[in-house]
Amino acid sequence: MNAHRVDIREVALRDGLQIERPIPLAAKLELLAAIAATGVREVEATAFVSPSKVPSMADAAELAAELHNFPGIEFSALVASPNGAKRAVAAGLRSIEYVVAASDAFSRANVGRSSAEATAQIGEIVAIAHDSDTAVEIIVATAWDCPFDGPTDPLQVLDIGAAALEQRVDRFSIADTIGTATPGRVSSLIAQLRPVIGDLPLGGHFHNTRGAGLACAYAAVSAGVTRLDASVGGLGGCPFAPGATGNIATEDLVYLLTDSGYEVDVDLQAAIAAAQVAKVAVGHDLPSALLRAGDRIRT
Question: Signal sequence: where (predicted)?
Answer without folding.
Answer: none
